Amino acid sequence: MKVPKVNKWLLGTLAVVGVASIAAFAMADESYKDLKVQLDAAEAKIASLTAPSDLDIQRAEANKALVRDILADADARAMMQGNTNPVTVNVGGLLQTRFNYSGGGDDEANHGFSVPRARLILSGDLYSWSYKVSGQWTEGGDFDLLDAYGEGGLFGGTLRVGQFKAPFMREVLVDRADTLMVDRSIVSNPFGQGRSQGVQFSRDFGVVDFAAAYTDGFDTANGAGVQNGQAFTARAGVDLVSWWNVGAAISWNDLVDTTYTTYTLDTKLSMAKGLDLTAAYVATSGDAGDNWGATVQAGYMCMDNFQGYVAYEYGELEGVEENLSTFTVGANYWLNDNVKWTTDIGYALNGINSAWDLGDTGWRSGDSGEYLVRTQLQITF
After folding, report:
1. DSSP 3-state assignment of 275?
2. What pLDDT, in 10s, does the model give residues 61-109?
3. I need a surface site. Which of 57, 129, 130, 206 has the fewest CB within 10 A?
């Protein structure tokens, strides 16, 4: 039978398509096999990279052993000290370096650098009590003991024994690192309590705080003049409102050669916007003479780390012709929480008699018109 030409062409075309399809399927199958081989090889390589090496395993075991040793050592130390009665030691200190320039009056100007205080402080807990021991190097290089006391709870208050500041003038009770001016006032030197050896009981009732002490007398630190000396001192403070405190203290000192009574009244107002006002009056009677002094200080926080202040002090000593009268203006600048730079300028409206205990203030005895420039860098730790 004769096949038509059209059918021959169609059959040829179908044959070509079939052969091509078979070839395509064969090529696709080979490509799939190649791709699967490549994927399997990639997964194997990734697995080899993420698996921990022998070195990693050794390091992990070493770290675990180190942690176990540290925990075991901590447990041993805790057992030696006792978990309920820990004994701790905190180390602190105070360094003040200062430059003074005083002039005016009839005397020649005086100036120079000094290190008025280089202090080392140890404190901490001793079982249920706490303690503080501090000492200070003098300008001559000697090391003097300052505080040395322990204290613990008693009858809802605190019992303190050792060497400490008796509870009298507020300005003296304020730590040296926290004084407003470069140094404390002149008035605080002859009238202040200094440090004594004895026993003290104090209690804070919230609105009212109270302290009483029996000691060897004012300024008897390290056994200075304590033979048969004694003093009874009591102080109370009242918070009239949250920003206003009023305090008073009285002390009777029997120091063998002299017997006298001294008392003080003081107040502090912590106003809004960083304004603080303090004022104090102190007086003596008896063998020490009828003497008195007063101080007024005001400080204002102009910025977070900058405080300006002014201060005035006035005093009268029996037998001294001219009364003490000085005015001071200055500023505190905190470089950080532990470094404070203080600078002030003072002027003596009257002459300063040598009977005043000028101490480390930088003031000199002399005629009126004396001025004093002080700048000090203080570091605490």
Report:
1. strand
2. 777 777 777 777 766 665 555 555 588 999 999 999 999 999 997 778 9
3. 206
**88-380 in CATH: which number?**
2.40.160.10
- Which region holds residue 348: left if phi is over 0, alpha if psi is between -120 and 50, else beta? beta
- Residue range 111-166, pLDDT digits in tens: 999 999 999 999 999 989 999 999 999 877 889 999 999 999 999 999 999 999 99
Is 141 strand, coil or helix?
coil
How far is it, in rounded angstroms, from Cα 53 to Cα 344? 68
pTM of the model: 0.77
* Residues near 122 by beta carbon (within 8 Å), at least 6 away in sequence: 89, 90, 91, 92, 131, 132, 133, 134
| Torsion angle of C-alpha atoms 40, 41, 47, 50, degrees rounded to 10 | -140
Nearest to 242 by CA among 270, 273, 219, 280: 270
Measured distance between the N- and C-terminal CA atoms of the chain, rounded to whole angstroms: 120
Q: Is the dihedral of CA 72, 75, 80, 86 positive or negative?
A: positive
Contacts of 95 (CB under 8 A, 6+ apart): 115, 117, 118, 119, 378, 379, 380
pLDDT band with cut points at 50, 70 and 90 for residue 256? confident
